[in-house]
Design brief:
single chain, 328 residues, mainly alpha, two-stranded antiparallel sheet, 4% strand
């Protein structure tokens, strides 16, 4: 599946093909507007506080939904709660989120949002969206559901609670720390391994059919990759920590929203889901930014080129701003 790249008219903040010595070469194409967070630097206090507020609000919604389900459906068995409910949460977060970005990508409106597209000259048509969605659905049905089913015995072993007594703040923080660490470690190294010769050619290349990713493509992958780089990194932390089911729901919701955002192709300055430019750059360049959080990329130096890429964008928009002031 190849992303359809459409030629766009040059703009003060865009780029277009140029001719050098009679040969056509592609110049850099910049976003239409700066994509920096409106709350400051990525690891600055403003961004951290905004993300904490988002996490607290998400947990409140998830816990309220959990209590409502337990109260309205008291006949649900332990197996149904442990195996079926996380799959339902996964689907309820993934597909509406994916549909939202479908509308942006396929209609090109509203302009209030589409101007924040990271690669403004790249677009995918409806046929490719539908093919991507079909493969994603197959992965969810034939990989996600069986893995969740076989994990049930481990949940029983570690004592995953389904009680209506919600966990303490300490328990939430403990479980989330384990889940985040497990995802970063497993995803980084499995993802980086998938860029090795035969593994890339026979497995991971499919995911990179999208040089300009779309939200649905976050789970568009070979079944082996979907299992080891999508499902297992999220599942391991849950099983190791033995966390309460409401934390399971919360962690799945947050993880799915983040991966949708990372593949969406859009970077909204007010978004609390992290900087979508990180993973978008990975798809555009086929290198670097292998991790989910960026910690191991920083440790291994696999995020340096991306930082240079951001500096180049900042310099570009600084020149655009300076030229605009001069023209006045």
């Amino acid at each position: 599946m190849n992303t359809v790249h459409q030629r766009v008219k040059p703009s003060p903040v865009g780029g277009d093909a140029i001719k050098t010595n009679g040969k056509k070469q592609k110049s850099k194409v910049y976003p239409e507007v700066p994509l920096e967070s409106m709350f400051g630097e990525r690891f600055g206090l403003g961004v951290i506080l905004w993300q904490l507020l988002y996490l607290v609000a998400t947990y409140y919604v998830v816990s309220a939904a959990f209590l409502q389900v337990r109260a309205s459906l008291p006949s649900l068995t332990h197996f149904q709660l442990i195996v079926v409910s996380p799959i339902v949460v996964h689907m309820l977060v993934f597909w509406p989120g994916a549909f939202f970005y479908w509308v942006l990508e396929l209609t090109g409106s509203p302009r209030l949002l589409t101007r924040f597209k990271i690669q403004p000259s790249a677009h995918s048509d409806l046929k490719k969206h539908l093919k991507c969605a079909a493969i994603v659905l197959c992965n969810q049905l034939f990989v996600l559901i069986p893995l969740q089913y076989f994990a049930y015995d481990v949940h029983v072993l570690v004592g995953t609670s389904v009680s209506t007594e919600l966990p303490s703040l300490f328990e939430i923080l403990r479980c989330m720390a384990i889940c985040l660490a497990a995802e970063e470690i497993i995803f980084y190294y499995s993802h980086r391994a998938l860029h090795y010769g035969p593994l890339y050619r026979f497995i991971h290349k499919m995911h990179h059919d999208f040089k300009a990713p779309i939200a649905t493509a976050s789970e568009y992958a070979h079944p082996i990759e979907f299992a080891f780089s999508n499902v297992i990194p999220i599942m391991v932390g849950i099983l190791v920590s033995g966390c309460h089911l409401v934390i399971v729901w919360f962690w799945i919701a947050v993880a799915i929203m983040n991966t949708l955002t990372g593949h969406s192709g859009y970077c909204f300055p007010w978004s609390p889901f992290g900087d979508a430019r990180r993973h978008d750059y990975h798809h555009e360049s086929f290198r670097d930014n292998y991790g989910a959080l960026g910690i191991l990329d920083w440790l291994h130096g696999t995020g340096d080129k991306y930082l240079e890429h951001l500096d180049d964008q900042r310099q570009h928009f600084a020149k655009v701003s300076a030229n605009a002031k001069t023209d006045k």
